Amino acid sequence: MSQAIEREIDRSHMTVSDEVAIQISNMNKWYGEFHVLRDINLTVNRGERIVIAGPSGSGKSTMIRCINRLEEHQQGKIIVDGTELTSDLKNIDKIRSEVGMCFQHFNLFPHLTILENCTLAPMWVRKIPKREAEETAMHFLEKVKIPDQAHKYPGMLSGGQQQRVAIARSLCMKPRIMLFDEPTSALDPEMIKEVLDTMIELAEEGMTMLCVTHEMGFARQVANRVIFMDQGQIVEQNEPEEFFNNPKSERTKLFLSQILGH
Amino acid sequence: MSQAIEREIDRSHMTVSDEVAIQISNMNKWYGEFHVLRDINLTVNRGERIVIAGPSGSGKSTMIRCINRLEEHQQGKIIVDGTELTSDLKNIDKIRSEVGMCFQHFNLFPHLTILENCTLAPMWVRKIPKREAEETAMHFLEKVKIPDQAHKYPGMLSGGQQQRVAIARSLCMKPRIMLFDEPTSALDPEMIKEVLDTMIELAEEGMTMLCVTHEMGFARQVANRVIFMDQGQIVEQNEPEEFFNNPKSERTKLFLSQILGH
Amino acid sequence: MTTAIDTPQDQGFRLSQLIYDTRYRSITIQVIAMLAFMFIAAFLVRNTITNLANLGKEIDFGFLFNPANYDINQRLIEYDSTSTNLRAAMVGLLNTLLVAFMGCILATVVGVVAGVLRLSKNWLISKLMTVYVETFRNIPVVIWIIATMAVLSEALPQPRAFRGETPSASMWLWDSVAVTNRGTYIPAPVWGPGSVFVVLVFLLSLLAIWAFNRYAHRRFEATGQILPKFWINLAILFVPTLLVFFLLGRPIGLDLPALKGFNFQGGTMLRNPMLALWLALSFYTGAFIAEIVRSGILAISKGQSEAAFALGLRPSRTMNLVILPQALRVIIPPLISQFLNLTKNSSLALAVGYQDLRATLGGTTMNNTGRELECMLLMMLIYLVVSLFISSGMNIYNKSVKLKER
Amino acid sequence: QDSSTLAAVKERGVLKCGVNPGTPGFAAPDASGKFVGFDVDVCRAVAAAIFGDSEAVEYTPLTSAVRFTALASGEVDMLARNTTWTFSRDVDLKNTFVGVNYYDGQGFMVPKDLGVSSAKELSGATVCIETGTTTELNLADYFRVNNMDYEPVPVESFTEAQNQFLAGACDVYTTDASALAASRASFENPEGYVVLPEIISKEPLGPLVRHGDDNWGDVVRWSLNAMIAAEEYGVTSANAAELAKGTDNPEINRLLGVEGELGAMLGLDNAWALNILTQVGNYGESFEKNIGENTPVGLARGLNAQWTEGGLIYSPPFR
Amino acid sequence: MSSQNTPLAYVRKEMLEQQPAPRGQVGVAKWMRENLFSGWFNTALTLVSIYVIYSLLKAVLPWAFGGVWTADSLQECRTILNDLHGNTHYACWAVINERWNQIVYGTFFPSSEYWRTHIAFVLLILAILPVLFDALPRKMLWITAVYPFLMVWLIWGGTIWGPVSVALGFVLAYMASQFAGRSLGSGLTGLIAVAVALIWWFFIGPSVTSGLNKVLPLLHLQEIQSRELGGFVICVIIGVSGIALSLPIGIVLALGRQSDLLIVKTICVGFIEFIRGVPLITLLFTASLLLNYFLPPGTEFDLTLRVIVMVTLFSSAYMAEVIRGGLAALPKGQYEAADALGLDYWKAQRLIIMPQALKISIPGIVNTFIGLFKDTTLVFFIGIFDMLAAAQAIRANSAWNGITWELYIFIGLIFWICCFAMSRYSQWLERKLRTDHR
Ligand SMILES: Nc1ncnc2c1ncn2[C@@H]1O[C@H](COP(=O)(O)OP(=O)(O)OP(=O)(O)O)[C@@H](O)[C@H]1O
Ligand SMILES: Nc1ncnc2c1ncn2[C@@H]1O[C@H](COP(=O)(O)OP(=O)(O)OP(=O)(O)O)[C@@H](O)[C@H]1O
Ligand SMILES: NC(=O)CC[C@H](N)C(=O)O
Ligand SMILES: [Mg+2]
Ligand SMILES: [Mg+2]
């Protein structure tokens, strides 16, 4: 997978604007008695590419799932694109249609073709005519380099292709923010490359991205910030170079020694 | 994987006798209309270690599966250890108990412990008392270096360990010939080494072996003959050094350039 | 290397090859199986023939065309005691099919509701449904049928309880429904002049609904607009029909049941045997269907609904567009075999005296004509045909929805 | 028939007799689970004739709807199950009725408070009727001929019919008058029910066997006749043993096996009839014991009196 | 690159501790809110179900617990209830008490012989336990092996020789197979074994048995006719025999259906589809009324046995389908590995394929068992005096005329306990097997 990153990445478009895309302040979440997320504070500007790392069970998934309200937080505030996430259904709908999400296991709809997977949400949520939705879908499928698979079913595609369809499916909703939850960890090494390439392209186009991943090569080259979480807290954040070469906290050092060591 | 081969291999015992172990002459096989094996002629002497290579779908698996009649051939002759393979059940039983086979996916019996896996066939086919069968089994499990796993179930072992159990299981039948069908291709790199080591040891002891594999390092160091197949035919065969350094056929050159290149 | 070893000579065919040669062996086994099968069949047939000869009987289906001479209380087609045995069998078959059909519908409704509620986040309701499922499916259906019948005939009032100055029982729903221990009497429509038009309009509005849904779908695809289909459908279904109904001066009247003589007269009577059989079969099968529905929905991973949510689909749309289409594939095959079971279990009509196929052809007709062999064979054949019909439907469905995989 | 029923029965050691599952007085299990009754006595008589042991019977309770099938398929050797002798049952169903042990007719029973006093008032009534009986067919005819309509409630068995009738699931219960009496007698409150005066059919009830084994038919026929004749000659269970020492009535002598070889002609022991009479008793005794006026069923002899008493019960001579 | 104002670098100085969740996040309040009152719809559902439960319990509990347990007739029962409560809206469990024997043993079973059923029942449990729980000593399986013969002897009576002779058939078959197995393939061996057993059972055994019966009437128990069996006892007899027999037959049918021998396959498919296509009740009628037509004139064939055969055939067809599913789920590699090791068809099936296929099919198999056990109630319709027949007879009896609920609740409860236990056992086994080898 290190191959994937070895090409020269054009960072010129990856500008970060002043506009705030996501603001999380003093957010806390419990599962029953268990305090999963503790006092999270995070501001993400438009165009930022953030990689979230941390040991298993540290709450990374939970945090990004809170951002599009797949999980409910109990204290604090999350403001996405100027809209606060409350239990107000309208807000949730609004935010969900602006935030795309890619899961570890793709979660494509197996009973629909690739094209139908991509047009479903635009048609039913954005109420875009079928014709137009299909055009958009084909556009993004071309972008992820699998337009020829459009009429196949997910079961007929390889894992890497499926994950790319999942990305295309999110993009069809024209989201302003993309969340990735370990998008490559269910894949074989060759397939990882395909998917990371696609994500790098997205980054190059200036998409705001939050990505939970342990692909440190990717983090190093694409992210403009790496966040390290442990025990439900943000322990350290920094620019990738600094983060990898000069970690401040003990926890981070330990973690990095482990993942880089092996 | 090249690591696996880097140790000095003792070729001194690997003598090849004059005795014929397997003789295949003018063998042809069809799947329905499809002509998979075309006019195969091959003589394997006792003690030979033959590696079979070739592109996917070239009929490698089919050929070695014909040798213990997992597949039926339609024309020509296969004589194993002096017994011709016909549809006579007695011959088949006899040959199967002299030919051990290792599959790509191990095919261990998940409902039996490792030890039971190894003693099953000796007890039921060779009618060896349980005690004795277990002793033999432990002997071979030691040989493949996993005697301590004897009472576990296959599901609890790693892939490499499972493949070694599969080898031990075949050996317990005290076969005179071993067939391997891509024994390492379902394994992670580290595990490949374990398995190849075991196979090398077998080779050192003078076992007649036919092995479908793309581990060219293994071929180079252990095999005394490499056979290249394409489109159901034997295209080229030679000693490993000659085969790798000086391939005669265009197909072989092309193939070698691909697998050595990547 | 040495030259080839001597190959064994071809010795021609040997007898031992029949056992040891895979090619002949399979033929040997098949021939033995065939012989055994034919031997058993011949044995049975021969015995039957001798036994029949001893009795002086012969297989003859002529009795089907003789008058049946008995009455059947529930008739979906014209029948009286002078009709033929064949017609009696038809009446019985229709009764079987009727109760099976209604049973399948009610069982599906009950099962789907219970299955979905069992998944409900509401602890109380899901436990309640668990209790329902576990009670019904662990007790034999015959007991349910008999117990339901016993309760219906012993706990409900007799028709005469409705009589007198101070009746101890009264009718329901503004005196239009009478629930008695013989059956439930409900109003029946009376088709006055002009009712044809009402029916016609009703059929037309069904057509209109179909057309409207197509239109709505096209429009949705073209413009992305979603029409409030449900309400419009409802309106199309009822408004024109009701309009015509009142314009024509209410041509369709209701024949209300009223106590006359021994019983209620008028209206339609749903006899207790049928009710008992129907309810018991439905609730029993419903318990199985509930489990099927539940596991069908559970079989769809949580990831699917999360993915749909993440795309911004609302829960109801997620259910309709993502979960249900997938769950149905899992649900329908076992559902259909439950329908099959229900249909076969309807032969337990025996327990309550519902006059189904078994009671007519395999009961009274068989007894009156003494043609037990013919009647039994015919009856089994009919059940077999019905079953095969249902299961071939299932196979067609299975083929059509199989998920495409590589 | 290559294996005669008599031989098979002897070989087996028990007589398989199809009986009604539960009509008090005619055939019903008593408190200890043993079948007793007027019809059962016919079975016992046959067993006594064959084995000299009236208990060597295996009773098979049969509903009306399956009795002929059971007989035809050899499930039972004979039926003694209040079965009406009709033309089609005899000829078309290939049965042999060996006699009549009870002359009956079909009646109707209604709850008293229904206020019905004649069957002609039953138009529109709900009628409980056992399926597979002559009464089912008679009912259809009767109502059709009289231009009345009715709602049949078909039931499988006598007990079920009784349950339904008592629960008020039907207004009328119709079957053989004798069974009506038996049923009524078992009610908690018999006075609440009346049997209507109309008898709408002839129901000669008797035991029957399969066609085609005349010898076996004779055994059953003459076992019944022995009981009937014994009553006529005054042979009872009490005096049979005494009379078997010889009397001056040759008919009795032949009957009890003192004279002649009647038993041997049937393929039985010569004491066959003696066994019947000592173990089961004569017709009149059986009648009085099971269904007579001093029993709960309380039937008068009526038509079933000996011909000498003005009834129809008449045995051909033992000669 | 990011020269923006956001202070990117951030390091947490000290780690936060677990904090208790805010109120309403934990405890009863949260549980209630989430599970009972989340949203108006859920609240409505909760209220409705509370009402339903309340009215059910209110109707049932006093009725059931206020009932009378000893009385000799419904009349007496009602009198007692009237004295107790002033009305009769209470259960009259006395009927179960009073008619216990009839419900459990049937009307005709001689009461002096009840002890035999008790012993048979206890032995049954002992015989089943080692099959159910492999933690028990394997030696106990001997009880299981001997049990069928013991049970036949205990229930039907007679001398011990009949069952012994049948058992001897099995022993002979086993010996024959051992003897033949040395030289012949196992398929043929099986045939020979079956032939030996059949010859013994049909030709030699009966005469030997009757001879022994005369000479040495060992352990003679009063004979009991099948007709005399009834109640719960007959249910258990038919259910257990059917369960024990339908599994092997189902396996054979499933193998036949999977086989690539066209004729064998066609016969199996035909059989399975026929059996599954007709209602059990018609098969039972055939067994009880028509079977004699198909047998040589004069054959006697015990009714209970016939019913067992039919019930067994019926559920073995379903069993075959369940097992076929399990077979289909096995990867092809398992067959190949068995072949490659030189195991022949039957050994491969016995040692490799079946153990795995059966394990996969456990839920289906147990469901079929449950179905079979429930189907034993249908014997009521062919005149066997089971619990339902007992209930009907009791209801028709003038002493208990008018009783319904109590009887059916009791019978239902018996079935419920058996079936529920079976399904729980299968779930337990499934869980155990799942964790076993991982
Ligand atoms: N539904 C739930 N109920 C209770 N606890 C949960 C739930 N989901 C997650 N948790 C717990 O919350 C913690 C954080 O989980 P989360 O999935 O966010 O971790 P993660 O950082 O994504 O780990 P991984 O790298 O393994 O995916 C874990 O300890 C997990 O056990
Ligand atoms: N059961 C079968 N029926 C029909 N065709 C088959 C079957 N099994 C294999 N084939 C075909 O036979 C050819 C040879 O197959 P084989 O498995 O021997 O190839 P191989 O050389 O082992 O390839 P690989 O390296 O992919 O294992 C392939 O084209 C394959 O598609
Ligand atoms: N009720 C009955 O079972 C018998 C009715 C009538 N005697 C008949 O033979 O058909
Ligand atoms: Mg995670
Ligand atoms: Mg291969």
From TrEMBL, chains A, B:
SUPFAM superfamilies reported for this sequence: P-loop containing nucleoside triphosphate hydrolases
InterPro entries in alphabetical order: AAA+_ATPase, ABC_ATPase_HisP-typ, ABC_transporter-like_ATP-bd, ABC_transporter-like_CS, MetN_ABC_transporter-like, P-loop_NTPase
Keywords attached to this entry: ATP-binding, Nucleotide-binding, Transport
Pfam families: ABC_tran
Transmembrane spans: none
Keyword Translocase assigned: no
GO terms assigned for molecular function: ABC-type amino acid transporter activity; ATP binding; ATP hydrolysis activity
Claim: Nucleotide-binding is one of the keywords in the record: yes
PANTHER family for this protein: AMINO ACID IMPORT ATP-BINDING PROTEIN, PHOSPHONATES IMPORT ATP-BINDING PROTEIN PHNC
Recorded family membership: Belongs to the ABC transporter superfamily.
Name the record gives this protein: L-glutamine ABC transporter ATP-binding protein /L-glutamate ABC transporter ATP-binding protein /L-aspartate ABC transporter ATP-binding protein /L-asparagine ABC transporter ATP-binding protein
TrEMBL record, chain C:
Protein's organism: Celeribacter neptunius
Record-level GO BP terms: amino acid transport
Membrane topology category: Multi-pass membrane protein
Superkingdom per UniProt: Bacteria
Keywords: Amino-acid transport, Cell membrane, Membrane, Transmembrane, Transmembrane helix, Transport
Record field: transmembrane: 24-45, 93-117, 138-156, 190-210, 230-249, 275-300, 376-397
Domain ABC transmembrane type-1: 93-394
Family: Belongs to the binding-protein-dependent transport system permease family. HisMQ subfamily.
Protease as UniProt keyword: no
GO CC terms: ATP-binding cassette (ABC) transporter complex
Record-given protein name: L-glutamine ABC transporter membrane protein /L-glutamate ABC transporter membrane protein /L-aspartate ABC transporter membrane protein /L-asparagine ABC transporter membrane protein
TrEMBL record, chain E:
SUPFAM superfamilies tied to this protein: MetI-like
Keyword Cell membrane recorded: yes
Transmembrane segments: 39-57, 114-133, 162-181, 188-209, 229-255, 267-291, 303-323, 378-395, 407-425
Nucleotide-binding listed as a keyword: no
Subcellular location: Cell inner membrane; Cell membrane
The protein's name in its UniProt record: L-glutamine ABC transporter membrane protein/L-glutamate ABC transporter membrane protein/L-aspartate ABC transporter membrane protein/L-asparagine ABC transporter membrane protein
InterPro entries linked to this entry: AA_ABC_transptr_permease_3TM, ArtM/GltK/GlnP/TcyL/YhdX-like, MetI-like, MetI-like_sf
Domain of life: Bacteria
Annotated keywords: Cell membrane, Membrane, Transmembrane, Transmembrane helix, Transport
PROSITE patterns: ABC_TM1 (PS50928)
One Pfam family cited in the UniProt record for this chain: BPD_transp_1
One GO term (biological process): amino acid transport
Membrane topology designation: Multi-pass membrane protein
An example molecular function term from Gene Ontology annotations: transmembrane transporter activity
Family recorded in the similarity comment: Belongs to the binding-protein-dependent transport system permease family. HisMQ subfamily.
Natural source organism: Celeribacter neptunius
Every ABC transmembrane type-1 domain range: 232-426
GO cellular component: ATP-binding cassette (ABC) transporter complex
Main location class: membrane
